[in-house]
Amino acid sequence: MPERETVERAQEDAREGKSPSTQAGEFVREEIHHIREGKYGARSPQQAIAIGLSKARRAGVKLGPPNGPASLRKKAEQDSAAGEKPHHKTSPKRSQAVSGALKREPKSAASRPAMSRQAKKSAAKRGPRARSGAAMKAARIRKAA
What we know:
mainly alpha
């Protein structure tokens, strides 16, 4: 379950008209903090981000399904559907199994160098025009604030 403060911050972003990816960023941020404080670990920064996005979808953030294998898209659609319906009680056995598995994973997945590598790798996948456009948008937003 995401923390109440995280959900409130995401809802505030939604009220301000910010994009779904910005709203979901709050959940990813929370996930990174949890790993850094040693609550549990993750195999890689990508896994930490995926867990955060899954929590965001389940909290009602309207994120589209990702590009990738059908199983990944199906899971994202399940998460989105869970965000629209009232919550069902989570199975304690499954919850404990997931927590136990994540506790055995390394905490280094959310380290500064690991997150930096992930950000650079993800930026490199975008074309130069997309990166330039993102920079221009950031500059416009900074001026407006």
